[in-house]
Design brief:
There is one protein chain. With 761 residues, the protein is mainly beta. It contains five helices and 42 strands. The strands form nine sheets. It has a 22-stranded antiparallel β-barrel. Strands 3-8-9-6-7 form a five-stranded mixed beta sheet. A three-stranded antiparallel beta sheet has the order 16-41-40, with no helix packed on it. A hairpin with a 4-residue loop joins strand 11 and strand 12. Helix 3 packs across helix 4. The protein is globular and about 85 Å long. The two termini are 47 Å apart.
Amino acid sequence: MMKFEIASLAFTLAASGASPEEIPQAAPVEEIVVTAQHRREPIGDTPIAISAFDGSFVHRARLDDIKDLVAFAPGFAGASDDSYIEDLAVRGIASNDYGIGGEPSIGIFKDGIHQGRTGSAVTSLYDIERGEALRGPQGFLFGRNAISGAISVVTRKPELNRSSGVLTAGYGEPDRVELDGAVNIPLGPNWAMRMAAYLLDTDGWIDNAATPGHDRIMRQFKAAGRVSLRYEQGALSAWVIGEHEHRRLDGTPYRAANADREVIDAIDSALGTRIVMRGDGRSIDSDLLNPRDDGDITSVTAQAELDLGFATLTGIAGYRGHRFVYEEDYDGTAEPFGIYRQFQSGTYASGELRLVSSAKGSLSWTAGLSAYRETVKARFTDEADERYICLAGYGYASCDELTQDLFGMVYTPSADGMFVQPNHARNIATGFSAYGDINHWVFPRLQLGAGLRYSWDRKRFALDVPQTTSSLRNIWTFTYRTDGFVEDARSWQGVTPRLYLRWKPQERVSIYASVSRGYKAGGFGTFTLEAPSPIHDSGLVPMGTRPDAFDPETVWSKELGVKASLAQGRLHLDIAAFDYLYANLQTNFYNTETRAQEVINIGEVRGRGVEAALTARPAAWFDLRTSLTWTRTRTRGNRGCTLDDCGGLTNPEWASSGVATFRHPFGADEANLSIEWMWQGKSREAWDWRGIVRRDPAVVANLLLGYRWGDRVEANIYVQNVFDKLWYQGALNGGDLDPASVWGVSQPRNIGINVRIDLGY
């Protein structure tokens, strides 16, 4: 007997507490079929680090939007309750650039179409067939490069020969109402339609100590709908999907740290104030009464597949439009400075054509072409009290003294005393790629695969910094102005190979090793310009000034993985070890000397780690899904940081998550209890050298008690954050005149119920 079989038998006996004759006849764990390599195959046969979740798991775990998928996927971190994706990290890598001149490191896809960037990419999860979370460079699998990893969501498609429907309703704290449903309607022998809708309306859970009676920030209202049409005729299969989502959320609230005396005392001394953050760790103290995170997203996707016998020809096209408004108080105090606003709109159109060989025989291959065009326009504003700028920022006794000294003019305060500095940006990005791979079973149990992708990207970026209406002129966010838009256009290209080897010592055991290169195009900083000569304070930029460009980043990633289905399919094991080396990692950096947000290339980043995931059903009454991740990253040239944890990226070194489910049948019915946990160790969470705050270790446990009547009705009572733990999604260490702060406070313990009714017939 092989060692794998001995280990699996020992696991089964230990978990069940029985002798071999008493082992319960548990059904095998159902292995999810994925399409990560453009063909349907069991996840255990895919030589990629990937986690998959079917629609039933998404429903039971109450995953609201695309970012929630990462909670149970090893190697992922940085999920938040807003529409931003810049902090989503895979194996420590995130883009953290909130402008519009670059690309996100993580690729988010729905039904094969790239979902774009912040304001467009995050949508609700409803009527989902499955979600896939892939780790490591994925440029060889999708129509866009995804240098850190990818999230791929597949919605449920219409069924031709069955009328059916499903309805879910839920109510919980804090005054949370949730509804979603779908109906499937056959329209004849070749046509079918599916309609799905989703509604979420919930109160907030964060008090604002600065405004008694104006509390409960983090309110959410989301309404979404989708209509899908499917056509089948012989070898042809096609579908069209139209979708719209209306999102009205509160922007992320920040809480400044009272411990940051360096910054707070400097502000107090200059303004004659005494800044103290009131409330407890779950409150904020903010002068922004209505933070906003609003979006409207509309998309149309069309796909057709033609079975040619030897291969399948697939064409897929998509169009996506969005409008996005975001407002936050990033200083985290009740003082009137640090108000950030973003108004954005954009479109994204893409097309892809690929040919995938049939799975028959020892040789398989894929070839494809893809192209995209994205347009984004945005207006950004940074707002602060004029006295704060004059006294704390520049050290003058008054604003009149500042204007007399710098401009020889009398100071005229603005109507509300606020300094508002806008800038406008627009980006037109186009790209083209060609890719292919070939896989060959050189021996019955040994497969060799190789892939190659060529990518070309071009951006035409423009930045306009108008004169502020304040008599202080442009002396704060920008110390210059432009006469209309300043433009530049650049193009980048990259070649990304992949080579892997897969060995199957047993039918249900697969060991693979891969080497792949990742690439992300360069771009432009949204808040900086590059001038050919010095610019006078508050002056007009000279001729030849251009948007500030940054270089592409690349990575070589090595991976070794083991996937095994043991104990007659009741135990699935997935272990991946990786080692990568990044060159020219792009990161957002606040330059305290120029008071500007810059996007820079910081040099080399080395990362390595191990990700282990286990899915088991040792007995008919017990299911377990769990993961454990260790990730260690190191950077070079990290701007003078001397703290013991500043050599790495913002990922936690250790993390774990899981779900344990206990079941008890009552005839055709079933009672069940699920225990969920998510734990992350301490992480740095900030690109700086100050170390005032860090993201402390965090653990969250949830309970779900359910009862199912046959196959039609299911009711669940949930308790979220059972132990009422307080933790934060992120931390910023500020500097200069920005206090250190934390953001994304955890929701307190809350209880709710939801009921799901299957209307199939």
